[in-house]
Structure formats: C-alpha cells, structure tokens
C-alpha cells in the first residue's frame, strides 16, 4: 500500500507541481522579455515554446530524483521566486 502512495505522490508532484512551476517560469520569462522591449505576441509565442521543454524537464526530474522532498521544496521555491520576481518587474 505504501508503494502505491509513493508512486501516486510522485505523479501528482510531477504533473501539478511541474505545471505550476512551469507557468510561473513562463510568466517571469514573458514579463522579462516585454520589459526588455520585445513585442508581446512574440514574447508569448517564444515563452510557450520554451515552457513545453521546461515542463518536460521538470516531470523527468520529479521521477528521476531519488528523494521526493528536495523536488517538492525546489518546485515550491521556483513558484514563489518566479511569481515574486514577476510582481517586482511591475505592470507593463
């Protein structure tokens, strides 16, 4: 029974945590590119292409890590830092 919980928690962490972290990184990346002078439409297109790779890497990392706690902590840290930096960059 404990093995099923371990696998289930990794799946939830990889899918949900990876999604939230990837979307936070996307928001930061797009905000940074807009602030640096790129068009918004091009920024969103480039960001969406990049976030597929980031999401895939986060999912692979969540399943390949030997312990789940550092993965969970770093995904939460990605989300907090990315959203905080996005807010600090301000409205465009």
Order of helix and strand elements from N to C terminus: HHH
- If helices are DSSP runs of H or I spanning 4 or more residues, what is the number of helices? 3
Write down the Rg. 15 Å
Q: State the distance separating the first and last CA atoms.
A: 50 Å
> Total number of β-strand segments?
0
> What fraction, in percent, of the residue positions are helical?
over 70%
| Global structural class | mainly alpha
Q: Biggest sheet, open or closed, and with what strands and sense?
A: none
Strand content: under 5%
Shape: elongated
Count of discrete domains = 1
Keywords: Membrane, Transmembrane, Transmembrane helix
Organism: Acetobacter suratthaniensis
Protein name: Iron transporter
What key attributes describe this structure?
single chain; 92 residues; mainly alpha; 88% helix; transmembrane; Iron transporter; transmembrane helix; membrane
Give the gist of this structure:
The chain has helices at 2-35, 40-64, 68-89. It is mainly alpha-helical.
Explain what this protein looks like in three dimensions.
- The protein is an all-alpha fold and about 90 residues long.
- It has one domain (about 1-90).
- About 90% of the residues lie in helices and about 0% in strands.
- It is built from three helices and no strands.
- It has helices spanning about 1-35, 40-65, 70-90.
- Helix 1 (about 1-35) packs antiparallel against helix 2 (about 40-65) and helix 1 runs parallel beside helix 3.
- It is elongated.
- The model has no long low-confidence stretch (mean pLDDT about 90).
């Amino acid at each position: 029974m404990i093995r099923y919980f371990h696998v289930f928690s990794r799946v939830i962490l990889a899918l949900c945590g990876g999604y939230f972290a990837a979307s936070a990184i996307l928001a930061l990346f797009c905000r940074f590119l807009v602030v640096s002078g790129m068009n918004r439409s091009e920024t969103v297109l480039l960001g969406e292409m990049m976030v597929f790779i980031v999401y895939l890497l986060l999912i692979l990392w969540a399943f390949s890590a030997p312990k789940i706690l550092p993965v969970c902590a770093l995904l939460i840290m990605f989300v907090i830092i990315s959203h905080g930096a996005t807010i600090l960059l301000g409205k465009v």
